[in-house]
Specification:
The protein is α/β, with parallel strands linked by helices and about 850 residues long. The protein folds into four domains: about 120 residues, no CATH class; about 375 residues, Peptidase S8/S53 domain (Rossmann fold, 3-Layer(aba) Sandwich), CATH 3.40.50.200; about 170 residues, Glucose Oxidase, domain 1; about 130 residues, Immunoglobulin-like (Sandwich), CATH 2.60.40. The protein has 20 helices and 44 strands. The strands form twelve sheets. It has a seven-stranded parallel β-sheet with strand order 10-13-9-15-17-18-31, with helices on both faces. It has a seven-stranded mixed β-sheet with strand order 21-20-28-22-23-24-25, with helices on both faces. Strands 1, 2, 5, 6 and 7 form a five-stranded antiparallel β-sheet that branches. Strand 26 and strand 27 form a beta hairpin. The relative contact order is 0.13. Belongs to the peptidase S8 family. GO terms for molecular function: serine-type endopeptidase activity. One of its GO terms (cellular component) is extracellular region.
Length: about 850
Amino acid sequence: MGRIYWAHIVFLFCLGIFLLPSSCQDDSDGATTAVYIVTLRQTPSSHYYGELRRVSNGRSKPGAFGRTRFHKPSTFRNITRTDRRYGSYIARVHDSLLKKVLKGEKYLKLYSYHYLINGFAVLVTQQQAEKLSRRGEVSNVVLDFSVRTATTHTPQFLGLPQGAWSQDGGFETAGEGIVIGFVDTGIDPTHPSFGDNNSEHPYPVPAHFSGICEVTPDFPSGSCNRKLVGARHFAASAITRGIFNSSKDYASPFDGDGHGTHTAAVAAGNHGIPVVVSGHHFGNASGMAPRSHVAVYKALYKSFGGFAADVVAAIDQAAQDGVDIISLSITPNRRPPGIATFFNPIDMSLLSAVKAGIFVVQAAGNTGPSPMSMSSFSPWIYTVGAASHDRSYSNSMVLGNNVTIPGVGLAPGTDDNQMYKLVHAHDALNNNSTAADDMYVNECQDASNFDHDLVKGNLLMCSYSIRFVLGLSTIKQALETAKNLSSVGVVFYMDPFVIGFQLNPVPMKMPGIIIASTNDSKSLLQYYNSSLEIDGTSKRVTKFGAVATICGGLKANYSNAAPKVMYYSARGPDPGDSLPHEAEILKPNLVAPGNFIWAAWSSLGTDSVEFLAGENFAMMSGTSMAAPHVAGLAALIKQKFPNFSPAAIASALSTTASLYDNNGGPIMAQRSYASPDLNQSPATPFDMGSGFVNATSALNPGLIFDSSYDDYMSFLCGINGSAPVVLNFTGQNCNLYYNSTVNGPDLNLPSITIAKLNQTRVVQRTIQNVGGNESFSVGWSAPYGVSLKVSPTHFYIGSGEKQVLSVFLNATINNSVASFGRIGLFGNQGHIINIPLSVILKISLNLTVS
């Protein structure tokens, strides 16, 4: 879920993306129409070929994990042709049904879905939707809903050059042959992060990928290449509402926002691309898997966000095209109620994608730090929260009274060892100005209001008010004013009404600084006012006595304790705590770098953040930035282990995650918006999942926990009252799953989460050795109030073999507060497997402890 802009604040996480009404007016008869997603009972085409998976090297081999079989690319192409014919047949079935049910009535079919779900999106009235729902072949009718969006140094912080990249030949081959599909705001195909003009190491053609590149006036022929292998856009649901703005949003895969370009570059951008912003060089950028391929499925837009009908169409197409990984930096605007938490069109499409062998990554959301604020909750989706890394940019200014005031701003400093006069905007008004009583004149938006001679060669002081936050005033315009007045630089002080907000570094071409603290701003103003000499008659300033120098904020600092879970990163457990099943799946699964991330930006994006206009790179923050880090690292795992199932990739990432920061202490979690570093405590699994991603160890996991599509179906069937819903969405009867009492703790996940521990519970996990022969010992720390035992405590496991672990939990006290523990498996070949344990609620009456 959405990025956080450089100088934007917490409550604008999703700037420009709002919850929109899902209906519009049919002018012909006044009937209210809306977009509905209709699913049929007939099986989607992926379920016919769901046992077929692609292997990047083209070899045919039996599946090592689950029930998957592998086929040569030629076989896959034959299947694809058959699938397309089946897709055309399904579309005709949809058209026939609509004509039959809505005979003579007006309607508009937007999409036919056939690959991951069998259904269609249609614009109809509520009465027409009810007619469709009464048909025997129709399983479900859901009202469309809105969704929203959720580097130079992070490869080094994650240890990729000496670790994960070096294991398979360096960055020159990292991720080669793997296709990552991005459902986002599109892409800027002209950006060097997505070029394929590497003569020394030319990009291969991924044989298993069958996607195409749309050609439009703003996405011309030749936009795609061997790096950017596919690009499409989906906007039918938005267009029917009359809210699609082609001048801002582009009716093409082109990125009119910047978010999609940024996330694609984080995961898969080319290696060694110079990052130049506002004329300053900030190093060279690289994606996590710089040799992987990019496929873009644009379904989100700057002006309005997006809608589920378009997102499902994008996911469905990505799966048909043959992507290996899907990266989603989006979340629903509203969480579906009750058991519908899992049974929504997006999550059910992604379940079918997982069945087809596609690893799915989703941003956790920027709704933290409140508990139960998660927006991605299904166990088949890998959910990623945001953490910091060790690089930061800071700025400061030194006053003439030797007081140093900290601030932010990616800006150069003033000349060394030279102090400059401070001139407040209100004291620099020219004699002809009519803006003296204008409460906004201090924001420095119009140079004609000020006396050039007073400002020339001095530091101009401007107010940073809520109008900057809302976009009514801009830093860019204030800098332009300072330039026109020949100012040495600009000092922005914080308006006292802007309280508790977090300002990120802002690029400036001239010396400048933003004083983020209202207290520091107050100290600056006190010093300034105390140094003025004012004429008693005219009330004009006769002498400016305050002086200062700006130190500059272009140089990065790498000494920060990191990682730490960012205040905005959504927290677990799953939000549906009213249903135990929904609270018995650990979320997030993991945290990854998401704060202050440099990556590519769409320079021609319209209505962009004001200080990014015309730039090719941006520093962004949010779980949207964390998710593609993991998508790129998953590509490295997929490249090394082409036969890993999605669950196996998830396990490799989770069990090897780090629990400690770069100083050897526990990973901390920020607990508040205001002064987050002063309000933090050790992170729990509900904050960080299994921990912070460890790229190198994930490529050598030793043991994995695997799960299949059938396991997820058994879990869904185990939810009380879910059988009809399962049938509606999947066309499969829960009677097929004999063990339909599988709860969250029973899934073979690399974590254990229990919502209600009533006296005693036994949980089992099956592990498989994907390394060499090894002996393991088992250790654990029990959650508070729980007696814990794991059996066996020692075991030997040969390569390819499996071992069952039994975990015995017994409540020893009454306690309604969540508590946490951990199980560790320690191998004699160096593998360490971490399994987080969470007990959300314990109900234990009249307990006796033997």
